[in-house]
């Protein structure tokens, strides 16, 4: 099942932080579409929950040294 995951982070302070997070999240197995919104301090991704969970993604971001304040998961409707 595909899911849309949104991670609310602490304020991002530099564009290189955004790039580092985007790269780390994008390189995870099961992650398809990643966007890091600098001004909103959010990470949005579409994942395959058979391969990775929202908690796994949050851990990837936390391991880079950024606090994840909130995680939101939404099922993606498939036709």
From TrEMBL:
Metal-binding among keywords: yes
Residues in coiled coil: none
Chain ranges of the HMA domain: 3-69
Signal peptide as annotated in the record: none
PROSITE patterns: HMA_1, HMA_2
Keyword tags: Metal-binding
Pfam family, one: HMA
One MF annotation (Gene Ontology) recorded for this entry: metal ion binding
Keyword RNA-binding belongs to the record: no
Protein name per Swiss-Prot or TrEMBL: HMA domain-containing protein
Organism: Secundilactobacillus malefermentans
């Amino acid at each position: 099942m595909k899911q849309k995951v949104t991670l609310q982070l602490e304020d991002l302070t530099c564009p290189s932080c955004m790039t580092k997070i985007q790269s780390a999240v994008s390189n995870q197995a099961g992650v398809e579409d990643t966007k890091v919104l600098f001004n909103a301090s959010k990470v949005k991704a579409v994942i395959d929950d058979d391969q990775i969970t929202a908690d796994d993604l949050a851990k990837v971001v936390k391991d880079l040294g950024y606090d994840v304040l909130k995680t939101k998961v939404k099922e993606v409707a498939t036709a």
